[in-house]
Write a structure and sequence with these properties.
mainly alpha; 5 helices; elongated
Protein backbone atom coordinates (compact mmCIF):
# COMPACT_ATOMS: atom_id res chain seq x y z
CA UNK A 1 0.00 0.00 0.00
CA UNK A 2 1.33 3.42 -0.93
CA UNK A 3 2.43 5.74 1.82
CA UNK A 4 1.98 9.30 0.58
CA UNK A 5 3.68 10.82 3.63
CA UNK A 6 6.73 8.60 3.04
CA UNK A 7 6.80 9.59 -0.63
CA UNK A 8 6.77 13.28 0.25
CA UNK A 9 9.48 13.11 2.93
CA UNK A 10 12.38 12.35 0.55
CA UNK A 11 11.35 15.26 -1.64
CA UNK A 12 11.48 17.60 1.35
CA UNK A 13 14.89 16.19 2.34
CA UNK A 14 16.11 16.54 -1.24
CA UNK A 15 15.10 20.19 -1.44
CA UNK A 16 16.65 20.99 1.93
CA UNK A 17 19.93 19.20 1.24
CA UNK A 18 20.25 20.76 -2.22
CA UNK A 19 19.64 24.20 -0.71
CA UNK A 20 22.39 23.59 1.86
CA UNK A 21 24.81 22.31 -0.77
CA UNK A 22 23.98 25.19 -3.08
CA UNK A 23 24.70 27.67 -0.27
CA UNK A 24 28.11 26.11 0.23
CA UNK A 25 28.83 26.11 -3.49
CA UNK A 26 28.49 29.90 -3.45
CA UNK A 27 31.14 30.26 -0.75
CA UNK A 28 34.91 30.26 -1.00
CA UNK A 29 35.97 26.71 -0.15
CA UNK A 30 39.20 27.98 1.43
CA UNK A 31 37.13 29.48 4.25
CA UNK A 32 35.32 26.27 5.15
CA UNK A 33 35.79 25.02 8.70
CA UNK A 34 35.61 21.48 10.02
CA UNK A 35 31.98 22.17 10.89
CA UNK A 36 31.33 23.17 7.28
CA UNK A 37 32.88 19.93 6.04
CA UNK A 38 30.71 17.95 8.44
CA UNK A 39 27.59 19.83 7.29
CA UNK A 40 28.42 19.14 3.66
CA UNK A 41 29.15 15.51 4.44
CA UNK A 42 25.83 15.13 6.22
CA UNK A 43 23.88 16.88 3.45
CA UNK A 44 25.38 14.57 0.83
CA UNK A 45 24.70 11.48 2.91
CA UNK A 46 21.09 12.43 3.59
CA UNK A 47 20.55 13.27 -0.07
CA UNK A 48 22.01 9.97 -1.29
CA UNK A 49 20.36 7.82 1.38
CA UNK A 50 16.94 9.35 0.70
CA UNK A 51 17.40 8.58 -3.00
CA UNK A 52 18.32 4.98 -2.18
CA UNK A 53 15.32 4.63 0.12
CA UNK A 54 13.01 5.96 -2.56
CA UNK A 55 14.42 3.54 -5.16
CA UNK A 56 13.80 0.60 -2.81
CA UNK A 57 10.32 1.88 -2.04
CA UNK A 58 9.52 2.28 -5.75
CA UNK A 59 10.61 -1.30 -6.53
CA UNK A 60 8.56 -2.60 -3.61
CA UNK A 61 5.44 -0.63 -4.58
CA UNK A 62 5.57 -1.13 -8.34
CA UNK A 63 6.87 -4.70 -8.54
CA UNK A 64 6.04 -6.12 -5.09
CA UNK A 65 9.71 -7.00 -4.57
CA UNK A 66 11.64 -6.47 -1.39
CA UNK A 67 15.28 -5.54 -1.96
CA UNK A 68 17.79 -5.32 0.84
CA UNK A 69 20.66 -3.74 -1.04
CA UNK A 70 20.68 -0.35 -2.71
CA UNK A 71 22.36 -1.85 -5.77
CA UNK A 72 19.59 -4.43 -6.08
CA UNK A 73 16.96 -1.73 -6.39
CA UNK A 74 18.83 -0.03 -9.22
CA UNK A 75 19.60 -3.34 -10.92
CA UNK A 76 15.92 -4.23 -10.80
CA UNK A 77 14.90 -0.87 -12.26
CA UNK A 78 17.45 -1.32 -15.06
CA UNK A 79 16.33 -4.87 -15.83
CA UNK A 80 12.72 -3.71 -16.12
CA UNK A 81 13.61 -0.86 -18.47
CA UNK A 82 12.88 1.94 -15.99
CA UNK A 83 16.54 3.02 -16.11
CA UNK A 84 18.82 3.08 -19.12
CA UNK A 85 22.31 1.60 -18.82
CA UNK A 86 23.71 5.13 -18.70
CA UNK A 87 21.32 6.23 -15.93
CA UNK A 88 22.03 3.02 -14.01
CA UNK A 89 25.79 3.62 -14.26
CA UNK A 90 25.52 7.21 -13.08
CA UNK A 91 23.29 6.25 -10.15
CA UNK A 92 25.66 3.47 -9.15
CA UNK A 93 28.47 6.04 -9.01
CA UNK A 94 26.33 8.16 -6.70
CA UNK A 95 25.70 5.19 -4.42
CA UNK A 96 29.43 4.41 -4.37
CA UNK A 97 30.13 8.06 -3.57
CA UNK A 98 28.05 8.08 -0.40
CA UNK A 99 30.97 6.93 1.76
CA UNK A 100 33.61 9.15 0.15
CA UNK A 101 32.70 12.28 2.15
CA UNK A 102 33.07 10.35 5.43
CA UNK A 103 36.58 9.12 4.64
CA UNK A 104 37.70 12.41 3.15
CA UNK A 105 36.45 14.38 6.14
CA UNK A 106 37.89 11.87 8.60
CA UNK A 107 41.31 12.08 6.97
CA UNK A 108 41.15 15.87 6.74
CA UNK A 109 40.12 16.34 10.38
CA UNK A 110 42.75 13.91 11.64
CA UNK A 111 45.60 15.83 10.02
CA UNK A 112 47.12 19.04 11.26
CA UNK A 113 45.99 22.35 9.84
CA UNK A 114 49.30 22.77 8.03
CA UNK A 115 48.85 19.54 6.12
CA UNK A 116 45.21 19.94 5.09
CA UNK A 117 44.49 19.70 1.37
CA UNK A 118 44.98 22.88 -0.62
CA UNK A 119 41.56 22.47 -2.24
CA UNK A 120 38.98 21.28 0.30
CA UNK A 121 36.36 20.93 -2.43
CA UNK A 122 38.38 18.12 -3.99
CA UNK A 123 37.74 16.06 -0.87
CA UNK A 124 34.00 16.30 -1.25
Amino acid sequence: MRDIAYEQAPMRHRRKMLRILDDYSQENADSWTERDFLAIQRALQVFIESFIGMARYFVEQKYQLSVSQSREALDELKSRGVLTSEQHGELMKIIDFRNVPYWSTTIWTSTTASSKPSSPKSSI
